[in-house]
Design brief:
heterodimer, A: mainly beta, six-stranded mixed sheet, four-stranded antiparallel sheet, 12 strands, B: 115 residues, seven-stranded mixed sheet
């Protein structure tokens, strides 16, 4: 069964510094996609970045990058140059490409606090 | 297009009553998803539509829950005989046909409180 684990309930980072949010996953499907979403206090989930299981390079989107280590089944999110507006809940998610259909499962999330 | 719309934003109901929520996805998106999120947890998958067909339903979903997408556009989620454990945020999301590397677009959610 597919599973997403985020072991950091909360993280603190100083403004302008980089931070890594951890995510490990478990699946037996060779084809899958990994996602990170941000949920500010307003509640709306915002898609940040995607990594495919067959992608050779780590995904990057502006200040977000995904450190994909396939053998270790980890997909950590790196936020560079943190800003106060980055304070939010961050969810790692996975969608299997085969028998998993098109549903995405989410981890429990990490709450990030950016300090001024 | 203004994104995914959900109505109402908040709903307070008495235990035992029925409630219905509506979701209007982005018009070009043929896939629609319902999730439930409780405080401090990640979204939990409920059900998924491709056009008007309901292709998957979580086994965690009791028969008090039903969802429809009659014309492949908007969707409704109904909860019958609500219980206090149904109190949660109900999120709707949509995605386009070519979704291999496309994240979902979520609505703002409907917060249900059962008293």
């Amino acid at each position: 069964a597919q599973k997403i684990t985020q072991t950091q309930p909360g993280m603190f980072v100083q403004e302008k510094e980089a931070v890594t949010l951890d995510c490990t996953y478990d699946t037996s499907d060779p084809s899958y996609g990994l996602f990170w979403y941000k949920q500010p206090s307003s509640g709306e989930m915002i898609f940040l970045i995607y990594q495919g299981s067959y992608d050779q390079q780590n995904a990057t989107e502006g200040r977000y990058s995904l450190n994909f280590q396939k053998a270790r089944k980890s997909a950590n999110l790196v936020i560079s140059a943190s800003q106060l507006g980055d304070s939010a809940m961050y969810f790692c998610a996975m969608r299997e490409g085969g028998t998993g259909g098109f549903k995405t499962i989410f981890g429990a999330g990490t709450r990030l606090f950016v300090k001024a | 297009d203004t994104g995914v719309s959900q109505d109402p934003r908040h709903k307070i109901t008495k235990r035992g009553q029925n409630v219905t929520f509506r979701c209007d996805p982005i018009s070009e998106h043929n896939r629609l998803y319902w999730y439930r999120q409780t405080l401090g947890q990640g979204p939990e998958f409920l059900t998924y539509f491709q056009n008007e067909a309901q292709l998957e339903k979580s086994r965690l979903l009791s028969d008090r829950f039903s969802a429809e997408r009659p014309k492949g556009s908007f969707s409704t989620l109904e909860i019958q005989r609500t219980e206090q454990g149904d109190s949660a945020m109900y999120l709707c999301a949509s995605s386009p046909p070519e979704e291999s590397n496309y994240g979902y677009t979520f609505g703002s959610g409907t917060r249900l409180t059962v008293v």
